[in-house]
Amino acid sequence: MTEATGKVALVTGASSGIGAATARLLAARGMRVVVNYLRSSKAAEDVVADIEAAGGQAIAVQADVREAAAIESMVEQIQAAWGGIDVLVHNALIPYAVKSFQDMTWEELGGKLDAEMRAAFAVTKAVLPAMTEQGWGRIIYLGTGLGRRPREGMIALGTAKAALEQFARYVAQEVGPRGITVNVVAPGPVEDTRMADVLDDAHKRRQVAATPLGRLAHPTDVAQAVAFYAGEDNAFMTGTTAAVNGGMSMY
């Protein structure tokens, strides 16, 4: 095995979709990538195999990012293998109910809010010590355009991601003096993801018609924005949100 080089990036929920595309791209740009997954071990190992076949370095690590103890164990595994985490891409999708406010229970809305923020809080707490010690770090959270622009049935996801986006700004303000940037990538609808599966064909056609660039995003489109935020060259952007939606929502 070649000597480990390059910054270490932890991508949560990286066995498929946006997370997998991001893991592959960061690896292609020379980072050592941790492919975190919850249940899809085969899919995560496939992502690692793809990265290694392309000449990159990656390992798959299982952890439920809603559980602080699981995150702590994952970070210990990463430190044993490669040392501290330089880049955090928090992409893991916490399950949520797709229904109207009228039909929703507090357990469904409040549960999504709690799980979303618990995961972001815990994984951020876990990576900050090493970033602080070295005076450099990149944190990127995956949001959604639904945090600002409501869509029918998406109140749980949209509200939780809006909270995440504001959380990101507060963290950015606090850790900026330590040399750590914190940003959000907020995609519109993305093909080949679990979120896309909740849209029927008619809804997808309406979304495409409302998009100036004439199509929905691909996972690689979102990964490009994440990789930009993760890079060493991007030294002076923090507390921002990148809307990756083909112009569907301009704000």
Describe this structure in words.
By secondary structure, this protein is of the alpha/beta class. The protein has one domain: Rossmann fold (3-Layer(aba) Sandwich), CATH 3.40.50.720. It contains seven helices and seven strands, in the order βαβαβαβαβαβααβ. It has helices at residues 17-28, 41-53, 68-82, 106-134, 155-175, 201-209, 219-230, and strands at residues 8-11, 32-37, 57-62, 87-90, 137-142, 180-187, 241-244. A seven-stranded parallel β-sheet has the order 3-2-1-4-5-6-7, with helices on both faces. The protein is globular. It starts with 7 loop residues before the first strand and ends in a 7-residue tail after the last strand.
Outline:
With 251 residues, the chain is α/β, with parallel strands linked by helices. 44% of the residues lie in helices and 15% in strands. It contains seven helices and seven strands.
CATH class descriptor name: Alpha Beta
Structural class: alpha/beta
**Quantity of strands, as a count:** 7
Q: Helical stretch count?
A: 7
Portion in beta strands: 15-25%
CATH architecture annotation: 3-Layer(aba) Sandwich
Helix content: 40-55%
Say which CATH homologous superfamily is assigned: NAD(P)-binding Rossmann-like Domain
Order of helices and strands: EHEHEHEHEHEHHE
What count of structural domains?
A: 1
Indicate the mean pLDDT.
94
Distance between the termini: 47 Å
CA gyration radius, whole angstroms? 17 Å
Give a short account of the largest sheet. 7 strands, parallel
Keywords: Oxidoreductase
EC number: 1.1.1.-
Protein name: SDR family NAD(P)-dependent oxidoreductase
Pfam family, one: adh_short_C2
